[in-house]
Amino acid sequence: MENIQILDLGGSIVAPEVINTDFLKKMRDFLTAWLEEEKDRKLILIIGGGAPARKYQTAYRETDPSASESELDWIGIMATRLNAQLMKAVMGDYCQDPVVTDPTGVSTMKGRVLVAAGWKPGFSTDYDAVLLAENFGASTILNLSNIKKVYSADPNLDPAAVPLDSLSWGDYQTMCGETWTPGKNTPFDPVATKKARELKLKVIAADGRNLENLKEIFYDGDFTGTVIGPE
């Protein structure tokens, strides 16, 4: 795969209900081993909000039935920044830049790992990942969360939903819709989807907790996941 790898890490991986430090160490060891195999390899990690975002957004909603969507987004953004700062620290000397909070215009890095967080209301960190892929000339984003594949519908609501190996951006946009709402539960957010479709990017959605499967993705092996790509 390309020597710059974009990982869009869901907060469910970095900061679930209880932070799994053993997993974070194993993830770090896997990523740094990949970096050391070739000296020109680099990583960009974009970190989602996870449990802290959900808890604080829920608290706000409970205090205000007419909760502002902008405020909900800002709460989620602040959670992504906390999680990203943790991930930057975990990656140690490999990450020499501050956490990126505005992806526009960022196209270089001092170290071999760049960590990014949420930017502003109106979309999730998926959109930040797309902008960074554009800026750094990457054609693929690994969208890693706690699901193995994208389903044809929400399996929690539709018993007929089936896992998909691949689908086009057009089909995926139909599934996820056109608009963003704070905390929207889709594998890849609608705003990011529209931009990724314009750029003809490829997104691989997979379970980021399964490091053996992640290894298959990194080394072009036989992996479990869903490929979303150009029509």
For the structure shown, list the relevant keywords.
231 residues; alpha/beta; Carbamate kinase; seven-stranded mixed beta sheet; two-stranded antiparallel sheet; 8 helices; 9 strands; 42% helix; globular
Describe it for me?
- It is a single chain.
- With 231 residues, the chain is an alpha/beta fold.
- It has a domain at 4-147 and 203-219: Carbamate kinase (3-Layer(aba) Sandwich).
- The protein has helices at residues 11-14, 21-37, 50-63, 69-91, 125-136, 169-176, 190-199, 211-218; strands spanning 4-9, 42-47, 113-116, 140-145, 150-151, 163-164, 166-168, 202-207, 226-229.
- A seven-stranded mixed β-sheet has the order 3-2-1-4-8-9-7. The protein has a two-stranded antiparallel sheet with strand order 5-6.
- Helix 5 (125-136) packs parallel to helix 7 and helix 6 (169-176) packs antiparallel against helix 7.
- The longest helix is centred in the middle third of the chain and has 23 residues, at 69-91.
- The chain is globular.
- It starts with a strand and ends with a strand.
- The model has no long low-confidence stretch (mean pLDDT 94).
